[in-house]
């Protein structure tokens, strides 16, 4: 049975699902990267994802319009991000803990709304796989790369876009300046709070979309605690990836490939403890943090609130 | 403790009541949400109060629910006072529960007098391991503890799932081939003594006793003084000759040990076995995070966490009654818990400003002795 795992069909399947499953990690991880580069640790990603996942699912179910659903998810995430920004920037709340508050808030509220408005687990027909002429029909390569839904491709496209935003635009320069040395940025006339409001809200939007990518594209259901820790992993990916979009991509693929492997192991009924495999990325993340620890590339002002005095 | 009884000025009184105000604000928002869902907030909240504190059974359930919050919360006090953000309560709870369960399953024929203390010890050690690793990583490898505790949470969950589906699965489940991931029930001799007919068990008394011990540790011993000094100012502490890395490890280790004990108590006192739905919350009931809520509400003071966890335990128990009375899901309480955390940490700025005003009002020269601040 274990031999099944090495058949071409299964390996192609694992690679294809791995790419698909990287989607929520990418949206949430890239959003968090932008937020952290400006110096704000948003630990409420999980809560934002849950709210986004519910909003997207509910709108998709009631209107049948998936793009409207995606918009709703992004808006709900943005709203949560805006609140996080207010609490972190204006009220200077300690970010690690306020994030836990937003997590509990999103966990509770998404469950509350789910039970009140839906009452039971339903399914929607989410974003369907795209079909590219010729490419999708290619053997092997077509299955792995060219039969995904649009949200998967957008997620991967965001990797170079985020890199470009951070490294090649004036706004990106401001974001990095605010994250490294807010006092200097402030004295040069950059509004620290405005930049941080932007990044945290954008991060929230992307977290909301990440949630929707689960509820209306990958799984097409909503249930209590749908994300089950995925948002926290997305935060970890930022550290794993050394605050670089490319690093986040590698981390996202690592986690998603192992998840895909586990799913296939379960589907095929292979009696190997796949939990051990699932543990590996977490252990690897810790090892990566240890190796990076001595020369940590963390933004210098990360988690430090800025007080203009 | 002592300074609690000194004469209060009004702003100080308001400072002390900030968590209460934060909770009232959260309950107020909850009332609006109830109205939006077409429920009468007064009916809802009275059902909640009755469900939590209405009769002796309700009270017992509240205390049972409060026990893990208190134990986790005490650990959070040590960690936050020591300047480390331990959000690994969930994993430490699971690690402690797993270790304690293994002890109980391993020695089924022994007397409870032997196994119960061993099980509790195993819980402490399991949690200490799960907290100590992030501690070592932070102190000696500069690894952010928020991250490593999140990772340790996930590792604990996978370990639990692996053990409960595999080596530790209830043999009965295999016989029936139903394969529900849970362990066998521990021997009845290992049940913590309980106050029949309620579910109130000895764990609550243990937790209250530990609250006093943690208070003594933090405020009446040199070790506790050093932990708090490191939390307030690691640089000054190093110049004062305190070995900062050791104390960082120790705060996380003790913090984890208490969360692990909470897991052990949950197994021996309440569930008598372990089970999993694949996520951490399935077994912990989110105690690892709700313990943070209780600790913040108790102003990170071990004795303050006692009433705080009693209150939040009550909210969680009463939530089910509320659900039946006004058809509003109990998840409302999780939402409100989140708001309490957000409000409490947000009000810190106000508290700091008041403290600064008091200092400047006393017109002491700049390097004035600073009032002790809660490092939230």
Output the keywords.
heterodimer; A: 309 residues; mainly alpha; ABC transporter involved in vitamin B12 uptake, BtuC; 12 helices; 0% strand; B: 376 residues; 17 helices
If you had to describe this structure to a student in words, what would you say it looks like?
The complex is a heterodimer of chains A (309) and B (376). Chain A is mostly helical. Chain A has one domain (2-128, 149-293): Orthogonal Bundle (ABC transporter involved in vitamin B12 uptake, BtuC), CATH 1.10.3470. Chain A is built from 12 helices and no strands. In chain A, helix 1 packs antiparallel against helix 9 (192-218). The longest helix of chain A has 30 residues, at 8-37. Chain A is globular. With 376 residues, chain B is an all-alpha fold. Chain B has a single domain (67-347), classed as ABC transporter involved in vitamin B12 uptake, BtuC (Orthogonal Bundle), CATH 1.10.3470. Chain B is 74% helix and 0% strand. Chain B has helices spanning 2-5, 10-36, 41-53, 56-81, 89-106, 112-141, 145-165, 171-175, 203-220, 222-232, 234-239, 244-271, 281-284, 287-297, 302-326, 331-346, 348-361. Chain B is globular and about 75 Å long. The interface between A and B is large, with 50 and 55 residues.
List the helices and strands and how they pair.
The complex is a heterodimer of chains A (309) and B (376).
Chain A: H1 8-37, H2 45-63, H3 66-90, H4 95-118, H5 141-145, H6 150-168, H7 170-180, H8 182-187, H9 192-218, H10 230-240, H11 245-268, H12 274-293
Chain B: H1 2-5, H2 10-36, H3 41-53, H4 56-81, H5 89-106, H6 112-141, H7 145-165, H8 171-175, H9 203-220, H10 222-232, H11 234-239, H12 244-271, H13 281-284, H14 287-297, H15 302-326, H16 331-346, H17 348-361
Helix pairs in contact in B: 2-3, 2-16, 3-4, 3-15, 4-9, 4-12, 4-14, 4-15, 5-6, 5-7, 5-12, 5-14, 6-7, 6-12, 9-10, 9-15, 14-15, 14-16, 15-16
């Amino acid at each position: 049975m274990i031999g099944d795992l090495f058949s071409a069909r299964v390996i192609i399947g694992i690679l294809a699902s791995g790419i698909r499953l990287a989607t929520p990690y990418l949206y949430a991880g890239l959003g968090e990267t932008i937020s952290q580069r400006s110096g704000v640790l948003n630990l409420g990603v999980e809560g934002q994802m849950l709210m986004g996942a519910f909003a997207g699912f509910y709108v998709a179910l009631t209107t049948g319009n998936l793009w409207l659903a995606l918009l709703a998810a992004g808006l709900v995430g943005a709203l949560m991000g805006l609140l996080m920004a207010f609490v972190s920037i204006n009220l200077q709340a300690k970010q690690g803990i306020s994030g836990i508050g937003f997590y509990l808030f999103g966990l509770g509220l998404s469950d509350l709304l789910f039970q009140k408005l839906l009452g039971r687990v339903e399914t929607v027909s989410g974003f369907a796989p795209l079909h590219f002429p010729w490419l999708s029909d290619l053997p092997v390569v077509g299955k792995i790369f060219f039969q995904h839904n649009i949200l998967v491709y957008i997620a991967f496209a965001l990797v170079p876009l985020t890199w470009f935003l951070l490294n090649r635009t004036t706004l990106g320069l401001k974001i990095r300046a605010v994250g490294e040395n807010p006092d200097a940025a402030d004295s040069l006339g950059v509004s620290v709070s405005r930049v941080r409001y932007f990044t945290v809200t954008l991060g929230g939007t992307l977290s909301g979309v990440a949630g929707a990518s689960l509820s209306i594209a990958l799984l097409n259901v909503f249930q209590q605690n749908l994300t089950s820790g995925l948002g926290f992993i997305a935060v970890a990916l930022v550290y794993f990836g050394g605050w670089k979009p490319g690093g986040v991509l590698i981390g996202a693929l690592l986690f998603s490939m192992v998840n895909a492997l586990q799913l296939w192991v379960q589907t095929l009924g292979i009696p190997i403890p796949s939990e051990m495999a699932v543990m590996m990325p977490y252990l690897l993340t810790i090892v990566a943090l240890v190796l990076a620890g001595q020369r940590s590339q963390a933004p210098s002002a990360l988690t430090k609130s800025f007080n203009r005095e | 403790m002592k300074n609690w009884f000194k004469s209060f000025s009004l702003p100080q009184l308001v400072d002390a009541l900030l968590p209460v105000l934060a909770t009232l604000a959260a309950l107020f928002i909850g009332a609006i949400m109830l109205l939006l869902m077409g429920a009468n907030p007064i009916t809802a909240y009275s059902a909640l109060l009755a469900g939590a504190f209405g009769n002796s059974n309700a009270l017992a359930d509240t205390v049972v629910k409060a026990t893990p919050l208190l134990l986790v919360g005490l650990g959070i006090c040590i960690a936050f006072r020591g300047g480390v953000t331990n959000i690994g309560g969930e994993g430490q709870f699971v690690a402690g529960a797993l270790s304690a369960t293994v002890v109980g399953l391993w020695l089924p024929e022994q007397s409870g007098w032997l196994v119960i203390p061993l099980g509790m010890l195993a819980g402490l050690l399991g949690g200490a391991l799960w907290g100590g690793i992030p501690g070592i990583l932070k102190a000696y490898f500069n690894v952010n503890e928020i991250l490593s505790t999140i990772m340790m949470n996930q590792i604990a969950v996978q370990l639990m799932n692996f053990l409960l589906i595999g080596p530790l699965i209830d043999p009965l489940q295999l016989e029936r081939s139903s394969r529900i991931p849970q362990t066998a029930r521990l021997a009845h001799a290992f049940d913590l003594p309980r106050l029949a007919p309620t579910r109130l068990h000895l764990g609550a008394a243990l937790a209250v006793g530990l609250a006093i011990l943690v208070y003594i540790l933090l405020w009446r011993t040199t070790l506790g003084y050093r932990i708090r000094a490191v939390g307030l100012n690691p640089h000054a502490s190093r110049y004062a000759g305190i070995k900062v890395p050791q104390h960082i490890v120790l705060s996380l280790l003790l913090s984890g040990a208490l969360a692990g004990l909470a897991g052990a108590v949950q197994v021996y006192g309440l569930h008598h076995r372990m089970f999993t739905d694949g996520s951490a919350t399935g077994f912990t009931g989110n105690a690892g995070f709700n313990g943070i809520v209780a600790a913040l509400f108790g102003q990170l003071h071990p004795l303050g966490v006692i009433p705080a966890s009693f209150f939040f335990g009550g909210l969680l128990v009463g939530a089910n009654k509320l659900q039946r009375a006004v058809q509003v899901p109990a998840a409302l309480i999780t939402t409100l818990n989140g708001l309490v955390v957000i409000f409490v940490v947000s009000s810190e700025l106000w508290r700091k400003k008041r403290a600064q005003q008091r200092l400047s009002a006393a017109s002491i020269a700049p390097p004035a002795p600073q009032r002790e601040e809660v490092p939230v």
